[in-house]
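SUBJECT: A protein chain and its fold
Encoding: whole-number codes for local backbone shapes
Chain under study, with its fold:
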Amino acid sequence: MAKQKSKLREYIEAIVTALILALLIRSFAVQAFKIPSGSMIPTLSIGDHILVNKFIFGTKIPFMDDRILSVREPKRGDIIVFEFPKNEEACKSFPKTFMKRIKNVMDKGHPVYLFKDDCKDFIKRVVGVGGDKIEIKNKTVYVNGVPLTEPYTIHNDEPCPDMGPYLVPNGKVFVMGDNRDQSYDSRFWGYVSMEEIKGRALIIYWSWDAKGSTLNKIRWGRLGSLVH
């Protein structure tokens, strides 16, 4: 009887230890995310499952906005996962952009509703960091007057209004999706603060095509691909 209790205790201790380790890894090291939309095509596809490096920009202290053990700051080109920005001033910060977008899709007199999505995590590419001046002309992004070379982006044939200039505040980043004309990003709701960033996309560990045939649902060629 005593031996059975001893074994049961060992099992419980092993399970508790494994759970604690899993929580620590998830909180401070890496975390898994699933790509739900096509805003980052062709870099990331719907159904990609990725691991995110959570310590590269600093480990976030639970229940606080402070970070420790930061390796570096986000830089242009980084693909980051972040909480939806707590930016209630987005409409005021980007009024011309909002009005141009709205006029293209709505008739005069229709009501407009804005919702802040606190539940979702977003994934986008960093285009500008603190101190950068961002302008978008003819669908080309200019940072501090210099056009960005972005071989990873795609566009459709629909016209898009020019935007900016926007001066990115210190401690914030300007993000955009690689699928530029199908992305909901900083052009709509403004900047992302460091406190809202969860980490940098690292690797695709699984990829599932829900629309593929039975034998082709797993995208084998994407497994193990680094995200950049």
